[in-house]
Amino acid sequence: MKMTMKKAPMGWNSYDYYDTTVNEEQVKANADYMAEHLKDCGWEYVVVDIQWYAKDAGSMRDQYQYIPFGDMEMDEHGRYQPAVNRFPSSAGGKGFGPLADYVHSLGLKFGIHIMRGIPRLAAHRQLPLPGTSLTAAQAADPASICGWNTDMYGVQDNEAGRIYYDSLIQMYADWGVDFIKCDDICDSWMYRHEGFSGWHETRMLHQAIEKCGRDIVLSLSPGPAHIDRAWQYEKYANMWRITDDYWDRWDLLLNMFERCELWQNHVADGCYPDCDMLPLGRLGKGFGQERETHFTREEQKTMMTLWCIFGSPLMIGAELTKLDEWTQWLLTRKEILKLTEGGYAGRQVERDSRRAVWSCFNEETGERYLALFNLSDEEQVLSCDCHQVEQFAGRKAPAARELWTGEEVSAEAGLLSASVPAHGAKLFLLENLQKEG
Known about the structure:
Oligomer: single chain
Radius of gyration: 23 Å
């Protein structure tokens, strides 16, 4: 059985700030900040992103993001280990165990990024798989590669492949890993019109997690996810990216309204289409261009509102220790964050080039919400007739409260109107709902 989850995962991921270069001290500093300032609002996962096993990560960033066939830490069975020069507590074969213990001691959960497949070097050296006479070469599929990273071959759907993935996930479980973000598996631009081994590798990872004895969230990247494969994501994974890498550009945020419309009916307990990380605060140090997010404050509210009312996982991309007071405020609005919990169903009501309207309903509590999004480049008054909203059928709402500002507004005759800044959003909790008639 897949892991039971009643809320979309919320946490921090190292990629947007550190790229491939994050180290143990930096992970601990961000975990400390989360425990002190964000945990109370539901933020709990601390995720070490790509190439934590690369000893030379970032040393040739002017030429490569991922150094081809770089200097990797690996055990005798061909499984990547944390680079000791970056994660010193992993020395002596301890892996991420000590760092996971530290994160757990703060009341948080620990996650890692992995690439789909088996290390190419392990296959070339024909390293033995644990407890068997089979080798990594027998598990590897050299015809299945990643187009942007040279670390891995795909894994064959055979006994050797199963043994490899089972041993890999068991090692992670023994370390205390709570979250795995697997890359090059949700979508691949290399295999558009032919077989993609990522489909059976998703199933193999899921089955290995079932056997390991530990609850582990399985997150799939990159996107865009294939809507015709929704059944597979829902059966074998907890999260799957509905977009390629998402950054702090208005055109990418605007496009997310289309993606959320496409995937809105596939959000359920334990199944979360993923809008990708939140590029807020300080970003880009590992890319050689540390900077503040390019999003305006109104655009940041729009992003948080859409992610929450849609029900996406929330992963902060910023360096947490450098959050300013306003960004911390943005990330700690409990009344808004709770929309990612089980029971809240968000639906698009309407959308055109200038505006979008979303509703949200919790059948158990009776709570109803309405979000007005201004997609244009100038402030405008947006309105919605609540009688025309399917989730509000048979109810009238004399009043509403805007959750970002606390402003109380009337909804005369069921019509909710508000002036919304350019690229901004307003999210209303409809109060005093009464049955009509």
